[in-house]
């Protein structure tokens, strides 16, 4: 059974930084296109960043220049470095696996983690 487990969330003041990690079991993260998403209760899911098997990355306009998605092959994790955080970044963040080599935010992601909460105070 593939599992994804996020960590690194928490509370931070505006302008601060957090690093989220997503640990995968049963497979190697570099073999699939994976992404980070976020969701606020009552709102639509929002794609934050994607990295495909070729290493290409894509970001939501709202986080470009502030967030960086990457893989740590030694730890087999998908990471999200978040800098210059804003109150509007407050959400539940979760990682997801498309099971494909290439994906976009609207792709089907059959596997996702439980999420980690990020709260940014003004």
Summarize the structure.
The chain is mainly β and 122 residues long. It is 0% helix and 48% strand.
Provide tags for this entry.
single chain, 122 residues, mainly beta
Question: Strand content of the residues, in percent?
Answer: over 45%
Helix count, per DSSP? Answer: 0
Broad structural category: mainly beta
Low-confidence segments, given as residue ranges, are: none
> Helix fraction?
under 10%
Q: Compute the gyration radius: what is it?
A: 13 Å
Distance between the termini: 40 Å
Please tally the β strands and state the result.
11
What order do the helices and strands follow? EEEEEEEEEEE
Q: Assembly type of the shown chains?
A: single chain
Q: Largest sheet at a glance?
A: 7 strands, mixed
Rough outline: globular
What's the rounded overall pLDDT mean?
Answer: 96
Secondary structure: elements and pairs:
Elements lengths: L2 E5 L2 E4 L4 E8 L8 E6 L6 E6 L5 E3 L7 E6 L4 E6 L8 E7 L13 E2 L3 E6 L1
Parallel strand pairs: 2-11
Antiparallel strand pairs: 1-3, 3-8, 4-5, 4-9, 5-6, 7-8, 9-10, 9-11
Characterization of this structure:
The chain is built from no helices and eleven strands. Strands 2, 4, 5, 6, 9, 10 and 11 form a seven-stranded mixed β-sheet that branches. A four-stranded antiparallel β-sheet has the order 1-3-8-7, with no helix packed on it. It has strands at 3-7, 10-13, 18-25, 34-39, 46-51, 57-59, 67-72, 77-82, 91-97, 111-112, 116-121. The protein is globular. Helix content is 0%, strand content 48%. By secondary structure, it is an all-beta fold. Strand 5 (46-51) and strand 6 form a beta hairpin.
């Amino acid at each position: 059974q593939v599992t994804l487990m996020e960590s690194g969330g928490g509370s931070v003041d505006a302008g601060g930084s957090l690093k989220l990690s997503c640990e995968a079991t049963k497979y190697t993260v570099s073999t699939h296109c994976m992404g980070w998403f976020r969701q606020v209760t009552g709102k639509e899911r929002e794609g934050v960043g994607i990295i495909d098997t070729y290493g290409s990355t894509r970001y939501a306009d709202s986080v470009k220049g502030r967030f960086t998605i990457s893989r740590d092959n030694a730890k087999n994790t998908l990471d999200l470095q978040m800098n210059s955080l804003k109150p509007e970044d407050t959400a539940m963040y979760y990682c997801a696996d498309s099971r494909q080599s290439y994906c976009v935010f609207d792709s089907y992601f059959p596997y996702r983690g439980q999420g980690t909460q990020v709260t940014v105070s003004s």
